[in-house]
Amino acid sequence: QVQLVESGGGLVQAGGSLRLSCAASGTVSRFNAMGWYRQAPGKQRELVATIASGRPTNYADFVKGRFTISRDNAKNTVYLQMNRLKPEDTAVYYCSYQTGAIWWGQGTQVTVSS
After folding, report:
1. How crowded is residue 83: how many other Cβ atoms within 10 Å of its Cβ?
2. CA 86/CA 104 separation, integer angstroms
3. From CA 44, how far away is CA 70, in angstroms rounded?
4. Terminal C-alpha separation, the chain
């Protein structure tokens, strides 16, 4: 069992920044990917970024150069630094932990105003 707790969402103006955090508890391995997905109203959930020890960090094209994912394995915590936010980044952001299955956090709302 893995539990994921996100924090750091909120309302920000376009061009601003936010930092999301996700703390994992339970049986967590640094070799399994942790990451972020997002889901906007009326759209499917989509990958934002993932990170795992020994593997390349993976970013969706629409966040490259603006978002940075990082991970503190000692704390079992993953972060998403989001810069130069756009209104189209508005979504619920979900933390994930992947083994053979995917564990999800409860989600945190990010709203970017124009």
Report:
1. 14
2. 24
3. 24
4. 40
Tokens, residue 113: 């105003």
**CB contact at 8 A, 45 and 38:** yes
| The token pair that represents 36 in the structure block | 């972020």
- With beta carbons less than 8 A apart as the criterion, state whether 53 and 31 touch: yes
Question: What single-letter amino acid sits at 114?
Answer: S
Angle 63-12-38 (CA atoms, 0-180°, nearest 5)?
40
pLDDT digits (tens, 9 = 90+) for 64-105: 999 999 999 999 999 999 999 999 999 999 999 999 899 999
**CA–CA separation, 2 and 35 (whole Å):** 14
- Strands (DSSP E) contained in the chain are 2-7, 10-13, 18-26, 34-39, 46-51, 58-59, 67-72, 77-82, 91-98, 102-104, 108-113
Map residue 88 onto helix, strand or coil: helix
With a cut of 90, say whether residue 20 has pLDDT above it. Answer: yes
